[in-house]
Amino acid sequence: MSILWERSGLDCRLSMEDFREAIEAILRLKGNPNRILAIPPDHTRSASRAGELTVALHELAPKQLVDIMPALGTHEPMSPGRLEKMFPGIPQDLFRVHRWRNDVVRLGLVDASYVEQTTEGCFAEPWPAEVNRLVVEGRHDLILSLGQVVPHEVIGMANYNKNLFVGVGGSGGIHASHYLSALYGMERIMGRGDTPLRRILNRASELYASHLPIVYGLTVVESFPDGSQATRGLFFGDDHDVFWRACDLAAQVNCFQIAEAAETIVVAMDPSKYNTTWLANKAIYRTRMAIRDGGQLVVIAPGVERFGEDPLNDRLIRSSGYRTTPQVIEMVAQNPELRENLSVPAHLIHGSTEDRFEVLYCSNSIAAEELESVGYRAGNVEAMTRRYRVGQIQGGWNESTDGKRFFFIQDPGLGLWMHRHHPHAFPARSID
Known about the structure:
Layout: E1 3-8, H1 16-29, E2 36-39, H2 50-60, E3 65-68, H3 80-86, E4 104-110, H4 112-118, E5 127-132, H5 133-137, E6 142-148, E7 151-152, E8 156-157, H6 162-167, H7 171-184, H8 196-209, E9 214-223, E10 229-237, H9 240-253, E11 255-258, E12 262-268, H10 277-280, H11 282-285, E13 291-300, H12 311-320, H13 325-334, H14 336-340, H15 343-350, E14 358-362, H16 368-373, E15 377-379, H17 381-387, E16 396-399, E17 405-409, E18 416-419, E19 429-430
Parallel strand pairs: 2-3, 2-6, 6-9, 11-18, 11-19, 12-13, 12-17, 13-14, 14-15
Antiparallel strand pairs: 1-10, 4-5, 7-8, 9-10, 16-17
């Protein structure tokens, strides 16, 4: 086991002092490296504490930290304001933008037979291991990959080498990873550590990334009904064991089970984090296993102003819509542009209700007819905020102003919710 530093526990509340202590230990263990690349997530994952860890790294090694590359994946670049908010005090000339469509190099391929076996026949093409060229050409003697292990719709539990191969990966790997997981079924994946894509990425690490000077720093963060949070674990390591350690703890603090399927779930999406359905549809991914057939999900997302993170993805979402999985598969077969951009049909599958429940999407910027054209119903932000008393209630079961019982989640991106009798439910913390 190659765990370099760990502090964790269900009662832990780690602080900035713990973060500094951990960073100091890693720098010492790695011989005080001269050129450091940090790869934290972007602002949409600000709860990860990766911002604070990067700030601690800059405080302790200001001259050695020569590059910071937020793991954008397909997300748009961070604005100067978002950089300052997440990484206060760090000079912005240290930040590099990851351009996932062109600024990458291919390390190798995970062979098609392994991919087919791992996905149980859902996907049978070789998987390309690609990373930003700075990772391999930057002459760094330490690459510090930072982020949170938390339930995720594509890989089961986020982070570890996903931060490398997807966060600063290329279009080939991103498209294939998202689509193969969508075909396998996100309800079979979410909240689990051992998933098809995790096995593929672990194999890619073993085959093509073992020569890179990477240390992974992984957090586990618990969120409470009142919206507060506590960092329950911080793990540093350089092989798979660091992920499995963090994954075990995340499964205990970020996966929740309710006794009965909810007829109505209401979620509030922070406008500083969620400005597209590409991001805000975590509301659908992480709650779908808790909603009863014929139920309703109310997404209060005042900051959502468009569908995709870039013009191409936005156009493809608008023209295709969030349809059922069989419909999306058929669209992929008929549309070459979707076949060339498989992360989009994957996103469409993830954002579909599969005609099982209704999504009432409340945005201040997207017109009602646009929302309805992609498969959702449109709602009014102010009216739904008043009806469900958002801002006055805590997470869990509540009652609306008209006496309707509903389940409220402050930020569904920070966990996974399911009801006890869902066919893919697994033992998790009860919150009834």
